[in-house]
């Protein structure tokens, strides 16, 4: 049996339209399925009871939504070996972008039904798991503002750019202590720290171009010691990953990252708010079964 989690708010209602086509495919091909439709990520907790009642018969849990829906689903799959997949209908779709997942829903569901899973690393923050990127500082505040935009679903990935310009007006960089696998460094005037399991976030921004979910490592991008206008000037370079190597942009890799700061910095994971500094972030190798 396949279980579908349909976020009815995703992609300006696109998830509902896509689900209609997917359900028709399932019925025509006599494929057993169960669907949980929700307009609230909190309701995805019901997935746990579905898995328990199915007693090992679930072949895959498929999110019909975006990165936020995927984030909620994989946290409910924690501790199970049930594979995860996605039919992307969100505003950013960065997980799907990183894995080359088709936006053609029929092509993707046919692929899911007829494919085996593979193992993928996840990022852990306390009891939380994340798929793509964790962002701290300027990045975390941008994610918060983006999620609060009432017309986010109409703006799509442009919502992130709008939020960047808004937050740029009042965010103040902070001094940070960054510890990577036990090696401590002090970094002054930090704008943001991105810790990545995949290259993309923010609807196609290639923040850590070399990040991979299969290498047992996290890629870290630290942006610091830049004026507001210099930060704005290199911002467009992030879309093709050309920001790395520029003055004030440093790249690292590691398994366990600790961040403390002189003032609390907001943290997002997969675009969802998950806390504030201080924080310890780790990679959990081959922790999730995925059909991509």
UniProtKB/TrEMBL annotation:
Q: Which domain of life is it from?
A: Bacteria
User: What Gene3D superfamilies does the record tag this protein with?
Assistant: 2.60.200.40, Probable inorganic polyphosphate/atp-NAD kinase, domain 1
Mind telling me which InterPro entries this protein's record contains? ATP-NAD_kinase_N (IPR017438), Diacylglycerol/lipid_kinase (IPR005218), Diacylglycerol_kinase_cat_dom (IPR001206), Lipid_Phosphate_FormReg (IPR050187), NAD/diacylglycerol_kinase_sf (IPR016064), YegS/DAGK_C (IPR045540)
Pfam families cross-referenced by the UniProt entry: DAGK_cat, YegS_C
Q: Is Hydrolase among the key words of this record?
A: no
Query: Which metal ions or organic cofactors does this protein require, according to UniProt?
Result: Mg(2+)
Key words of the record: ATP-binding, Kinase, Lipid biosynthesis, Lipid metabolism, Magnesium, Metal-binding, Nucleotide-binding, Phospholipid biosynthesis, Phospholipid metabolism, Transferase
Q: Which GO terms describe its cellular component?
A: plasma membrane
The GO annotation for biological process reads: phospholipid biosynthetic process
Q: Does the keyword Methyltransferase apply?
A: no
The DAGKc domain sits at 1-129
* SMART domains tied to this protein: DAGKc (SM00046)
Q: Which GO terms describe its molecular function?
A: ATP binding; kinase activity; metal ion binding
Q: Return the PANTHER family for the record.
A: LIPID KINASE YEGS, SPHINGOSINE KINASE
Family the UniProt entry places it in: Belongs to the diacylglycerol/lipid kinase family.
Protein known as: Diacylglycerol kinase family lipid kinase
Its source organism is Alkalihalophilus pseudofirmus (Bacillus pseudofirmus)
């Amino acid at each position: 049996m396949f279980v579908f989690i349909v976020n009815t708010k995703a992609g300006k209602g696109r998830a509902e339209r896509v689900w209609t086509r997917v359900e028709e495919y399932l019925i025509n091909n006599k494929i057993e399925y169960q669907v949980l439709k929700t307009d609230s990520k909190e309701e995805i907790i019901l997935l746990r009871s579905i898995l328990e009642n199915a007693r090992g018969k679930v072949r895959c849990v498929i999110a019909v939504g975006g990165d936020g829906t995927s984030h909620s689903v994989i946290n409910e799959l924690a501790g199970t070996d049930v594979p995860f997949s996605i039919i992307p209908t969100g505003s950013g779709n960065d997980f799907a972008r990183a894995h080359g997942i088709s936006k053609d829903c029929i092509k993707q569901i046919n692929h899911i039904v007829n494919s085996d899973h593979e193992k993928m690393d996840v990022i852990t923050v306390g009891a939380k798991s994340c798929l793509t990127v964790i962002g701290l500082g300027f990045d975390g505040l941008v994610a918060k503002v983006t999620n609060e935009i009432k017309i986010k679903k109409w703006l799509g990935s442009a919502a992130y750019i709008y939020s960047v310009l808004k937050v740029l007006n009042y965010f103040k960089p902070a001094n940070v202590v960054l510890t990577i696998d036990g090696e401590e460094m002090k970094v002054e005037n930090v704008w943001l720290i991105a810790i990545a399991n995949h290259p993309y976030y923010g609807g196609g921004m290639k923040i850590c171009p070399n990040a991979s979910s299969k290498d047992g490592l996290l890629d870290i991008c630290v942006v610091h010691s830049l004026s507001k206008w210099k930060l704005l000037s290199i911002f467009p370079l992030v879309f093709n990953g050309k920001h790395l190597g520029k003055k004030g942009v440093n790249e690292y890799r590691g398994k366990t990252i600790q961040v403390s700061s002189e003032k609390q910095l907001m943290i997002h994971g997969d675009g969802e708010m998950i806390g504030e500094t201080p924080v310890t972030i780790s990679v959990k190798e081959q922790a999730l079964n995925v059909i991509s």
